[in-house]
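Data deposition worksheet. Section B asks for the primary sequence of the deposited chain exactly as it was used as input, without tags or linkers unless they were present during the calculation. Section C holds the resulting structure in token form. Section D is free text for depositor observations; keep each observation to a single sentence. Incomplete worksheets are returned to the depositor.
Section A, Depositor: J.P.
Section B:
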Amino acid sequence: MDIIRKKYYWWNKWTGYALIILLFVATPLVTILFKLFASPGGSWSHIANNLLYGYFQNTLLLLLGVAALTFLLGVSTAWLVSNYEFPGRRYFEWLLILPLGFPGYIMAYTYVGILDYTGPIQTFFRNTFDISFKGSLIDIMNLPGAIFILSITLFPYVFLISRSSFLQQSKTMQEASFLLGANRTKTFFKIALPMARPAIVAGIALASMEVLNDYGTVKYFGVNTFTTGIFRAWFSMGDATTAIYLAAILMIFVFVILYLESLQRGNRQYSSVNGLNKPTARIEVSMQKKLLYSAVCTIIFLISFLIPFLQLLKWVWLTHEKVVNQEFLTLIYRSFGLAAIAGVLIVIFSVILLYALRLSPFKWVKSITKVATLGYAIPGAVIAVGVMIPLLAFDKWVYDALLSARTAGLFLSGTLFALIFAYIVRFMAVGYNPVEAGFQKIGIHVNEASRLLGVRSTKTLWKIDLPLIKTTLFSGILLVFVDVLKELPLTLILRPFNYQTLATKAFDMATNEMIAESANAAVIIILTGIIPIIFLNQMIKKREL
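Section C:
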């Protein structure tokens, strides 16, 4: 092993490739950092005096509200399906994950349509009981409504991670708690919940990141947050520096969440003594409780997925003849092509980073990979601003250089290159993690044996490593594909003029009061998003067995 690594110990071409990727991916983040030292734009004083407090208050309340509700929904359902036998439990294990495929902005306008005067609920009451309501049945276009919508789409993060933690907890510890006289409720709060705390907080942190990234829901509901402020500063006021100041404040929220999650986790390790780690046996309860547990899971599934999805299908049935045409098929082709290109590039970059880490096992090389995957923790609007500014500067430089020829224009900004660039920065971690898991699974020994036989590193990668991890490569591409397909704020800022994706088309239609017509694009996004969710559930089932 030492002989093999001696050649690659200090420097090799893979380390150089990794540094190039780092330079590429870190450019937007470095741009925002340096721009903070510039003087504020002309709009900053107006925003600071009149809007900044509202941005801060609404963003903080949104985070706290979603954290509380996702904790309640995610932990309760995870505990039920992990520890009790009741009708439908096996189905709820994966049905309760499906809301992850429902983007928040689509859920938002779907529920507005359901509760509206012309929606199915009010129509039913008018036609059946001759009862009419003024306006919407329930006004959800406000901050509490945004909390509700984001919570029912994001609670599966907490459900998934909590369920995995509950399944891995030792039955022996719970049996000891029962022997000491504790009932099931006390055992949950004193034993199971503290042991699962790191997992639960990690799930809430993931949900919080998505809250900070959300633009569609808060924009549609008229809730002013830092994300909507960035859009206002960039598009309405044309003030890039002010947008960067708001982006920096939003990044502070992100880093505080990451720090608090790391702080509460610390060096705690919740494990059982070897040989006593028996899996938790599901508890048989009375028929009354079985029906109650089934009812709780059913209601949550109906509210978080089935009812809004059925409403979307109804709208598709009513509008597909008018909406689904050649232009719509072109929209699907563009969206899928863009997502596939981003997925393939991200997986290629991930392979290069991980191979550099294999051949140069230095801490600083490992730091490169951490920095390169930092973008997923940063809201899309922030990354979009960080991408646009250096590209605009480059275009200006090219324009000045070619001014005499009168042939210059926008070379990079406002093109698909800018969009794909931003997708790579934003979703690098999504493709990187499955590829890393694949490399860890096959180990280093086969690779070292190949190089001992005199095979070059590139050929070893191509002939040995990649065939062994092809499944995880496909998984990485698929996960990136789905995330790119439903990404909204980043796409809205960086897309070329008059260029639409499924996500932007659905959002534009909904904001123009064409909610029923927007369902056609929304259903494609949701059905595509369900595919990796099914794979994810299968992975958890294998771990459980």
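Section D:
Strands lie at 84-85, 283-284.
The radius of gyration is 25 Å.
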